[in-house]
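Board notes (copied after class):
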Amino acid sequence: MSCDIGRELKRLRKDRELTQKDLAARVDGGLDYTYIGKIERGEQLPSLKMLMGLSAALGVPVSHFFQEESPVNSPLRLAESDVKSTELHKELRQLHPDDIPLVVDIVRVLNRHRKAERKRAYQSASETLPLAAEDGPSYRKP
């Protein structure tokens, strides 16, 4: 179990482009960053209180660390009760093999966009830069 929690902690931290020091600084009450490394390596099992602090800092519920994934559903993280995910899974099974590279590219673009959105949420408003496809400041002289 500690390895699963550690792996998920590391995945969430990296998804948000945080270092161990960055994450440690976000935890209420403070935390030594080396403790995060021990959790991620499975050397330390965090207390419930610590897990609550880490989940708050990462913006996920504590239950997120205890969700089991079946091998069939893990790549898409499908929930059987989630109708849209089930619909997506159904469509993917019917996908023509020649279309797989295009779908992979689309998913990569969506993931990069979401990652950029999360990163912007953590930055101050003055540091936020628009993406190429979004409206941004004009660089022309008035």
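Comment from the instructor: The first helix runs from residue 2 to 15. The helical segments are 2-15, 20-26, 33-40, 48-58, 83-93, 100-122.
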